[in-house]
Amino acid sequence: MALTEHLREFRNRLIISAIATVIGMVGGFFLYYPFMEWLTDPIRQLNEQESREAFLNFGGVGGSFNVMVEVSIILGLIIASPIWLYQLWAFITPALHKKEKRYAYGFVIAAVPLFLGGCFLGIITMPAAVFALTSFNPEDTGNVIEAVPYVRFVLQLVLTIGLACMVPVLLVGLNMLGILPGRTLLKAWRWVIILVLLLAAIVAPGPDMMVMFYIAAPLMSLFFLAVGICLLNDRRRKKKQAKQEAAYASRTVKATSAEELRKVQGS
Questions:
Q1: Whether 65 contacts 87, CB under 8 Å
Q2: Alpha-carbon span 125 to 209, nearest angstrom
Q3: CA nearest to 80, candidates 20, 128, 170
Q4: What's the CA gap between 233 and 222, in Å, rounded?
Q5: How far is CA 250 from the centre of its chain?
Q6: What are the residue ranges spanned by the domains of the chain?
Q7: By Cβ atoms counted within 10 A, which residue in 2, 71, 152, 256 is the most buried?
Q8: What is the pLDDT of residues 12-62, one digit of tens each?
Q9: pTM as predicted
Q10: SS3 state at 181
């Protein structure tokens, strides 16, 4: 397609993704109060189980409304993730051959549960992160937790882990396009482990190493699974290229032999 057609297609898919996100935001408004109940549960546990004094503070008159809008936007993105993930991959897959598209669609299907599974992993680890971050209080002190930074912290935690779980799908997609060889990924495994551990330490700070392990282990497993798939795909692509080159060489030899035979007959 021409550049203008690509831009037109990108605009149309962006509009579809935006409409789906807006519809998801409407659903996010209805889920706001149950979501806030879950969000404030670790704070209640601090007061009941840990005998600490902590409460959530909505600063300003419109503080609670601003939090509602932010939460609804993020929930809208999560609810609409099957739509915008499909639109993203549908914009990329025309560059693939017909056989490769089947694999691409399979990874599109895998991206949604991986993203949602990563968000769920963030939800599970969120209470432990809250306990760890508030455990540094001196004695006879409490926590007046501002609602906006707290909500942003939790949403960033959930979305960061969700997007991190999607990275292997992106790596496999780039490999399908022939941009990223599997051996290049394999050579970078040490840096990937460092980055994964750093990410796990950031999103799950504190002395509890098990929380960090629960985050790092699935991410590293997904990365090495993606590397294995990329290596297999590279091997398949090389075999296909070798067959094509052999067939081309065979046709060239036959054509040359036929031409030489005509020359001999003509002489």
A1: no
A2: 12
A3: 20
A4: 16
A5: 45
A6: 3-266
A7: 71
A8: 888 988 999 899 999 888 888 888 888 888 888 777 766 677 777 887 777
A9: 0.66
A10: coil
